[in-house]
Amino acid sequence: MNHTTSRRGIWRIIGASSAGTLIEWYDFYIFGSLATVIAQQFFPKTNPTAALLSTLATFAAGFIVRPFGALVFGRLGDLVGRKNTFLLTLVLMGGSTFAIGLVPGYESIGFAAPLLVLLLRLLQGLALGGEYGGAATYVAEHAPPDKRGYFTSWIQTTATLGLFLSLGVILLTRHSLDPDLNESIRKFNTWGWRIPFLVSIFLVLVSIYIRMKMAESPLFARLKSEGGISKNPLKESFGHKTNLKMVLLALFGATMGQGVVWYTGQFYAQSFLENTCKVNFDQSRTILIWAILFATPFFIFFGRLSDRYGRKWIMMAGLALAIFSYRPIYRQLLHLSTPPAIAVSMGITETPLAENSKRITLPNGFAYTETNNSAPQLTDKHLDPGSYRQAVLLVFLQVFLVTMVYGPIAAFLVEMFPTRIRYTSMSLPYHIGNGVFGGLTPFIATLLTTMSGTDKLVGLWYPLLVAGICLVIGTLYLSNETDPNVKD
């Protein structure tokens, strides 16, 4: 592997890089996975919709600063090395996540609570801005060119597996705080939600120990020994017309489309199930867990496929399929979560609630509340087994499209830029595309939905528009071959 790295050595490198990156993604996504609970803890409870939007905006803030983290840590990585830089980002991410678990709620310290969470969220974004580029570059620079897509695709699984891990820890915590399920859920919503944040510190410490034993990338080490390190990576990356053109092409022809597909297929899917379809907490998360579990191997499949047939057309096919399938998929999710009219006439159970309202449970598990002054409002639905399996399939299809656009993209970005400025050059377009365009997807889509009284699918127009623009630019201007002028 690059004439120096054995097959056993490359797997050790992938394992060490992936472990730390997975933990960083877990730390970053635990916030989004708990958005509805966090909204109740750190914002006034008088307007739940505004609280949720504020939480999603805070979640999105971490994405907005990711490009700044890419600039800061990318420059550091090109100056002092890959290993030490993404060791630093791991420490910063782990400390910020642990601290979020310690912040008092809104009822204790008022608006200082959301401000502290916002600050820590910004630190998380900065850290992640430096992590991904370092890990992808580090693995790619140990791998032979003809297997770069395959080996870097293992790093690509860590983002989705980090989300998977966050969902699993949340559900495990939520159901283990008390033998009585209702009491366990109450405790989780009160203080137990902090546990997933706090336990991350132990995972981070293990990852730090592993990474401290890693050696520097052989390509960077050779470049350093030959005196070929860039003295000003930022100027060389963005001040030279040819390289700047490649940065912009990577952004508008690949990463912004990949970003919206990633966050639509996973985060917006969960948000849509919970907030629009009103599927209950556990089911909305286990649907995503099963979909991720079944789809994750395809990251490796498409990474390996890209070594044989090139990166471009696999990514473009994923974008095209997303554009044409999203509205039918989400329309079917709405259909699955709408109780059949015949169910209303059979086996109804009524539970009196406060303020002249009642909770009505239908025999298929759907439930809704009804008051004397309002139309019935469906809440906390429990899908029947058949509908649940269909929902898993529909979300799986979205995550499958994520694997098409995300599996090959690390190798694609690495191969666009030379070693001396690779960390800086690839990190910025990735984190603008994935972080800003993609990370804003749940917030913008949810906001559009609240502004439209009738069209529950209006939120999809944002990812469809971004993916469409990216598909056109990528198809016309991206190359399916590695630039022969880019030398390792």
Automatic annotation (TrEMBL):
Gene3D superfamilies: MFS general substrate transporter like domains. One of its GO terms (molecular function) is transmembrane transporter activity. One of its GO terms (cellular component) is plasma membrane. It is a multi-pass membrane protein. Keywords: Cell membrane, Membrane, Transmembrane, Transmembrane helix, Transport. The chain crosses the membrane at residues 21-43, 49-73, 85-103, 109-129, 150-171, 191-210, 247-267, 287-306, 391-414, 435-454, 460-478. The keyword Transcription regulation does not apply. It is found in: Cell membrane. Residues 13-483 form the Major facilitator superfamily (MFS) profile domain. This is Putative major facilitator superfamily transporter.
